[in-house]
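Page 42, continued from yesterday. The earlier attempt failed because a stray header line got pasted into the input along with the sequence. Redoing it now with the clean sequence only.
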Amino acid sequence: MRGVVANLAWLFLVVLVSGCGSLPPLPPKAFGPNVASVSVIRDSWHTAIVVPRKELVETGLIPEIDDFPLARFIEFGWGDRAYYPAPDKTLRMALHAALRKTSAIIHISGLARSPESVYGDANVISIAMNRPTLQHMISFLDHYFDREEGGRLHPVAPGLHPNSHFYLARGEFHLFNTCNTWTARMLRAGGVNLSTAGVITSGQLMSQLRAKTGSSSIQIDN
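This time it went through. C-alpha cells are written below.
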C-alpha cells in the first residue's frame, strides 16, 4: 500500500510541475453572430465536448454521428485506448496509461436531452460560437478520428453510457497528454483562450473556464 501511495504522490508532483503539455495557437479572429453553443461537461475525473448534432450535420464532417440518428446532442471524449473503455479499471492500468505513450480512442455519446439535464448545471459550461469558429473546432475534432482510408469508422467497443460507442483515434495518451489536455485543445481550436498549466483534474479545468466570466456561460470575443 505504501508503494502505491508513493507512486501516486510522484505522479501528482510530475503533473504539477509539467502541466498537461503544449496547446495549439488560437485560430484567427472570426466575425459574425453566434450560431450555437458548445458545452464542456465534467463527468467525475473526465471532461468532454458536446455539440448540437444539427451543427455537425451541416459541416458534412464526422460521419460517425450517423450512428446516433435520434440524438439532439453529440458528446465527444478522448482517452487511452485500453483504460478508457475498460469496464473494470485498475490502478495498474491507470499508471500504465499515464507513464507510457499509448494509443488513443474517442468516445461518442448520443444525447436525447441537453447536457445540463444529463449532467446537472454545476457540471456544464456553455460556450457560444459563431459559424467560422465552430467550423474550425469541428474540423479540428474530425482530424482526431483515425480513418486510414477515409470514409466512416465503425465502433470498436461499446460505450460507457446508453447510446454510445468507442472509435479509433489519432494521438498518443500519456501523462502530459490527457483527456483534459484534449478538451483544452478542442476549446482552443474554438477560440477559447485558456492554458493547461496547473490543470490536473477535471475540476481545475472547469474552474479555469468559469474564471473567465464567473458563470456557466462564456461569450468569445470574435
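Notes: Confidence is low (pLDDT under 50) at residues 1-21.
Reminder to self: strip header lines before submitting.
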